Amino acid sequence: MQNKLNGILATNGFPENKTKMSVYRALAEALMEAVLSKQLVKGEKLPPSRVLANDIGVSRSTVIKAYEILCIEKYVKSVQGSGYYVEDVQRKKIKHRLLSISTNGSRPEISERGKRFRKYVNLMNRTSGGGTAFRPGLPPLDIFPVRQWQSLTNRYWRDVTYSEMSYGDPQGLLSLRKNITDYLRIYRNIHCHHDQVIIVTGSMHSISIIGDLLIDADDQIIVENPAYANAIAIFKSLKAKLLAASIDDEGIDIKGVPLSKVQDPKFIYTTPSNQYPSGIKMSLDRRLEVLEWAQKHNCLIVEDDYDHEFSNWEEPITSIFGLDKSESVIYLGTFNKLLHPSVRLGYIIVPPYLVNDIRASLEQTLRFVPPMNQKIMSTFIEKGYLSTHLRKVVEVSNTRRSYFIDQFNRELGAIMSLRPLTQGLHVIADLPKSIVDNELAKFLTENGITVFPLSKYVVKGNMGNGLVMGFSSVDKASIKSKIREMGALCRQFIKHQQSQ
To answer: What is the architecture, at CATH level 2, of domain 114-126+162-383?
Structure first.
């Protein structure tokens, strides 16, 4: 271990305190304080005496003496042939310590925009860590071709040039953008130029970029109701005025939006392939209707096609972007739903007149998505690995959906009823009025079963009381055991509720 400790030593009074005592003692005191304040933690190896002496400009014998004091005081232990390692020491009285500047407790407030982000983050469905059952939106993680990806990663580091390790294009790697256009042409019947493609880290990043680019305070946008809760959180944080459009069996009912409330909307945010969370696939007639409405009202359409393959494998419908002839659609896609969320790769297809504006925004914020991930993804597509994986992912997801529904109805059918959804990566179970979805979802999540409350997706009104659940991220054995566990937890929750 050859960490440079100059900053830690300066924080703890060295070299300032060496004017008050011998240099080796001053160094030892500073190291002791660093151990006590946990800046140096148990088991951490100190730099070799020669390295530390060179770093702080003292003789090696000075460092050795300081280390010997630390050993005597039991702040570190010496391991022969290996070095000096920090011990776990309780705080003692310290003779010399660098005084920090005290404050009166007042600090500048964060911006109004920052306060809104802090406020509306609670609208999001958030989980971190824990298990994957039954978190909505996850693909079959266990069938991801790890060895192929590892091989491509090794190949990248074998062949990478120094120039490729420098700053990247904010718009994304050219080879990946070209391969994405080919992939979209084949699998989604979307025709675009690679110069229209922007590489991002996923759906949330896309929505954030578009929001920053288009939304000023009090601008109106039209959203589906119910809608993707995380997108709603971003729009509200940007101080947009949301006009909710209801969902019927053909998708967003844009003509049902009262014209008296329409005030120059910037865009319509929609999820036509698999409306989230209702699972409705927007009809072709309705897609044309939305395009016509947007052109009439001079607004854009943001088409979030977050899980296209899972919803259009058997009966594809042309995307709104593919139907558009007036460059009024911004198309969002992600690989995080096809591969796994930690791959952090997605894309936006934008009208040509917006490309330079988004590039400028990226240059001042994210800068660029790591080129390594982009290069590996590009090769993954080129070699046909993505095509092969897509077939497996769709097949496994459909199989697990059927199995989940069967097991769920056996175990929980008497408590809640599943809606007949046959596409996508999630299902919805409606709850009786006696059970509040937020409370049950919280209880289940705290006990290792991740579900989202349906009511959290509602933009306006009181139109949802249920659970949104994923099913494809775990195998059949786990589905069966986790549903049994979920059944037991639900009965426990109901029993506790009835006893109140």
So the answer is: 3-Layer(aba) Sandwich (3.40)
